[in-house]
Design goal:
The protein is of the alpha/beta class. The chain is built from 15 helices and 9 strands. A 6-stranded mixed beta sheet has the order 5-6-7-3-8-9, with helices on both faces. A 3-stranded antiparallel beta sheet has the order 2-1-4, with no helix packed on it. The protein is elongated.
Length: about 450
């Protein structure tokens, strides 16, 4: 009798596992397609709605006519849990952060790196929650199907037999067994889902005496934008717009919010295409400092910096280079921490380290320091200038802070109007001397330029 008990537990458990496995694989396939394609999602919503609305007993009775007795519980388990699990996958796909996806594209992450370091961690919480809910439901519907379909080797058959024979103690014992086995397997499943499938960079930190020198960037990239025309959402952003950014220059763009500056940057970076016109830049990769840090939350600080470098350097050299720039921005002690554990200022410093660790000849900065207080802005500005002296780049930055533009840039463009047009294109007076008279002259020139820009934008 003891052997029979464990045999029935084992056979029913295998049915639950088979049912859940089929449902899991099918939901991943259907949910991924539906999450990415609206038409398929709309098509899928009708049969899923029918499954949700129909009583499970109706499906069990129909399945008895269609399948062999032993197959009915597995089929019903798949059918009842499929809408729940597919819905979880769809929700996860739809909540993938488009901004982080763009960051991965700009920094050249390949499909495998994107999948394991970004897509899987983004979708995983939704899949885990829906899977745990579905697994518990699978046990209930599989046993219920066994009670009605009566496959002889099953917990459901034993329950039905106990009911017919009025064996209340046996019914209670089988119920307790179902709960305990379900709890045990659900705990194992929870552990597996939360710890399997997320790839990590294999970190072996460089030795303390290892040093990395900045790359000698011989590539000098200038950017020519000619007859650039673009509309978004029915609004004309640019019309026959032309501008040239010289190699190793630092240009600040000041313009009203929502005017189209970010769209221009996304076109330079290759994320968007203009309606017409051309953007020509010589060979050379692009780094991008966004309005927000855009660090991958599932990775450590070091992994965030090193991941884009994996295709360019050996794994060890990529880590050394990442460590070098984390040291430059003062985050050496935080390199093994998750990016979610950093403060706002630390996250932006990590993003700055990533932008310079990635060997690029062009750096785009889209209001990169806007969310920082004055003290942090000053620190980040000094870090930016210090790193730029080591690895010169062609820098184009967008900012609403006129003083920041005067402090960091060599040239200021003021854009205004709909579509945006150049209202001011002026060089910023700089000096390397500490002469007191020269300092006063520079302050006066900066003040006059600030007033001129404020007048245009008022």
């Amino acid at each position: 009798k003891k052997s029979s008990y464990w045999t029935l537990i084992g056979v029913s458990t295998l049915r639950v596992i088979r049912s859940f496995a089929f449902s899991f694989v099918l939901s991943i396939l259907l949910g991924t397609i539906a999450g990415k394609f609206l038409l398929f999602r709309q098509f899928l919503s009708f049969p899923m709605g029918i499954i949700k609305a129909t009583p499970v007993i109706s499906f069990i009775l129909l399945a008895i006519f269609w399948f062999k007795t032993n197959s009915v519980p597995v089929f019903i388990g798949v059918l009842m849990t499929l809408p729940v699990m597919t819905g979880g996958v769809i929700a996860g796909i739809q909540h993938i952060d488009k901004k982080l996806d763009d960051m991965c594209t700009i920094y050249g992450l390949n499909v495998s790196e994107k999948f394991f370091s970004f897509y899987v961690p983004s979708v995983a919480p939704y899949v885990v929650n829906s899977s745990l809910t579905s697994f518990s439901l699978t046990w209930k519907v599989v046993v219920a199907s066994e009670v009605i379909a009566l496959p002889q080797r099953s917990i459901g058959f034993a329950l039905q037999t106990a009911k017919v024979q009025l064996e209340t103690a046996d019914v209670f014992a089988w119920t307790v067994s179902i709960v305990l086995v379900s709890f045990l397997l659900e705990s194992l499943l929870s552990f597996a889902l939360k710890h399997i499938g997320v790839a990590k960079i294999s970190i072996r930190l460089p030795k303390k005496n290892d040093t990395v020198q900045p790359l000698n960037m011989n590539v000098q990239t200038d950017i020519s934008i000619d007859n650039f025309t673009m509309s978004r959402g029915g609004k004309s952003l640019f019309n026959d717009f032309s501008i040239h950014f010289a190699a190793h220059s630092i240009t600040a763009i000041i313009a009203p919010s929502g005017g189209g500056k970010t769209s221009l940057f996304d076109c330079i970076a290759g994320l968007l295409k203009p309606d017409s016109g051309s953007i020509v830049k010589q060979d050379g990769a692009i780094s991008y400092l966004f309005q927000e840090p855009r660090l991958l939350p599932s990775l450590s600080v070091l992994e965030n910096i090193a991941l884009p470098l994996q295709k360019l350097f050996s794994s060890e050299k990529a880590k050394k280079r990442a460590c070098y720039y984390l040291q430059k921005v003062g985050l050496s002690e935080k390199k093994t921490a998750l990016s979610t554990e950093l403060s706002g200022g630390e996250k932006q410093r990590a993003a700055l380290a990533r932008a310079f660790a990635y060997p690029s000849s062009v750096l785009l900065m889209d209001e990169a320091f806007q969310s920082q207080d004055i003290r942090l802005k000053t620190q980040l500005g000094k870090l930016f200038k210090s790193l730029l002296t080591e690895e010169p780049k062609t820098v184009v930055m967008v900012t609403h802070d006129i003083r920041e533009a005067i402090e960091l840039a060599e040239r200021i463009l003021v854009l205004d109007g709909t579509p945006l047009k150049i209202q001011l294109d002026e060089a910023v007076v700089k000096s390397n001397t500490d002469n007191e008279g020269n300092a006063v002259q520079l302050f006066t020139a900066g003040w006059e330029l600030e007033k001129k820009i404020a007048t245009i934008l008022s």
